[in-house]
């Protein structure tokens, strides 16, 4: 099929074929800090949980190569058809309308591609959805527009707190704009954290990119998700469901620390949040006034 193509055209097509994936991979390889977005970042963030690693491998090893090959193949077909079958090159068009062999091929190959994608996809979905026995269970409630974290008493907690985005005027050096919050949620590293999710008003969605986790928080329902963070650090997430005018301003922040540091934080937090009356309305009014 390539015999009728000029050497120049072939060189250009080969250069494009080599350049496109190189561009994609170069972007993904850009240095990324775990837990936060990177300037110019492309592809998935650096992952810190088993589910995250699996999602990343699925994307890099299965989806991206398939997408790249399909995109290049379609690009090649388009260019070839424009070059070979334009009116000048092909003044008398063929009247052929059916080709049984070709029709079977273009039905079967996409089906096979979908099957190849489906197997690791369902395996990943199962790992995301099936929560292993949890070491720590937390309840997170979405509100317009902040998260409430509840640490149950029987696990050394017995307190709850609201987590609200820091307004720009209050940002300390090193704080990330639109991501830093007043109260970080602290969890132990290398332990299974189960998060029970619900909402007080509209549908929100709890998501942390570097955990490979996203789950809707729905009023009147209790959803759950889980993560096991492999590395100490601060991890940023967002609400992923358009939930009203301040949807973009309800980040969530999770700090992963060692077990002893977690126990110490629990003691401190118990005192700090003991007087928390959870009066959400007053806090919303206050945060609106700041903006
Ligand atoms: Cu929301």
How is this fold's topology laid out?
Elements (H helix, E strand, L loop, with lengths): L6 H23 L20 H35 L15 H30 L6 E8 L2 E6 L7 E5 L21 E4 L3 E8 L4 E5 L4 E5 L5 E6 L4 E7 L12 E6 L1 H14 L7 H11 L1
Parallel strand pairs: 1-5, 4-10
Antiparallel strand pairs: 1-2, 2-3, 5-8, 6-7, 6-9, 9-10
The structure holds copper (II) ion (CU).
Short descriptors:
5-stranded mixed sheet; binds copper (II) ion; 291 residues; alpha+beta; Immunoglobulin-like; Helix Hairpins
The quaternary state of the protein chains shown equals single chain
* Number of individual domains: 2
Low-confidence stretches: 277-282
Number of strands: 10
Helix content: 25-40%
- How confident is the prediction overall: mean pLDDT? 86
Q: Spell out the CATH superfamily of the largest domain.
A: Cupredoxins -  blue copper proteins
Shape: elongated
Name the CATH class of the largest domain. Answer: Mainly Beta
Q: What is the third-level CATH name, the topology of the largest domain?
A: Immunoglobulin-like
Sheet of most strands: 5 strands, mixed
| Helix and strand sequence | HHHEEEEEEEEEEHH
In percent terms, what proportion of residues is strand?
Answer: 15-25%
Strand order of the largest sheet: 3-2-1-5-8
| Gross CATH architecture of the largest domain | Sandwich
**Count of DSSP H/I helices:** 5
Class inferred from helices and paired strands: alpha+beta
- C-alpha end-to-end distance: 63 Å
Q: Compounds present?
A: copper (II) ion
